[in-house]
Amino acid sequence: MLAAERRDHLLALLARDGKVVAKDVAAGLGISEDSVRRDLRDLAAEGLCQRVYGGALPVSPALADYTARQSVTPDGKRRVAAVAAALVRPGAAVILDGGTTALAVARALPPALDCTVITHSPTVAAALLEHPSAEVFLLGGRIFKHSAVACGAAAVEAAQNVSADLCLLGVTGVHPEAGLTTGDAEEAAMKRALAARAADTYVLASSEKIGAASRFRVLPWEDVDGVITDADPRHPVLEQLGALGVEVLAG
Fold first, then answer.
1. The whole model's pTM is what?
2. Please, what is the Cα angle at 147 between 145 and 152, to 5 degrees?
């Protein structure tokens, strides 16, 4: 099989099975695992897969820049946001992550809702200016422009001095084996710091993130209370999450 044919085969496996296991592909094609790993390295270099131990997973489209992500599944993000906003009770304090889905959550909160929103996202904070009953606390630090959020040591330190009833957390990948992932190490650390300050943590995951993976793990499954998604409940990944005891809320 030519290199181009192997490449097409690997991409087809990712689309069909949601993963590539290098040893299984090597056995099936009668080639060495080294050859498969080289092909996967080439695909990863082009941004077409996320390499993991033993093979590869689909790469998350949520790794695109902030402006581009605003046009990715906007209807799905609104459905996720509606479910997430309903979790915020009157008088509650909520930590709201950054990103395009979190921005949709801010816009979905009822304007008259009396609550406290803690965020490290200037865009989320600005959106809540239209909510006169919401008290807004903006955590500062170095701005990570890809996601328009504050990250780094100063932001993590600020997060350690707050407490909340609920954390609504964004990620770029949701996978039963790879876990909850994102594309930047400092952003992953900031998300962990935020989740650690809330009694309950729910993950905001529009359908394009289900089954995808990024380089840095955010949290293990036992540290979250559930996933909010607009993906089909029969999606194999969601069925696997259910088997792990993860609550899935449908948007």
1. 0.81
2. 70
Rounded to whole angstroms, the Cα distance separating 171 from 53 reads: 21
131-137 contacts at long range (C-beta below 8 A, 24 or more positions apart): 131/106, 134/109, 137/162
The tens digit of pLDDT for each residue in 104-116 reads: 999 999 999 999 9
pLDDT digits (tens, 9 = 90+) for 78-127: 999 999 999 999 999 999 999 999 999 999 999 999 999 999 999 999 99
Distance CA 112, CA 117 (A): 14
According to DSSP, the residues that pair with 57 across neighbouring strands are: 50
Rounded Cα distance, 119 and 148, in Å: 11
CA 202 to chain centre: 11
Distance CA(17)–CA(31), nearest Å, equals 20
Q: Which residues, 6 or more positions from 146, have their beta carbon under 8 angstroms from its beta carbon?
A: 65, 66, 183, 184, 187
CB within 8 A of 30, min separation 6: which ones?
Answer: none
| Residue 227, beta-bridge partner list | 203, 248
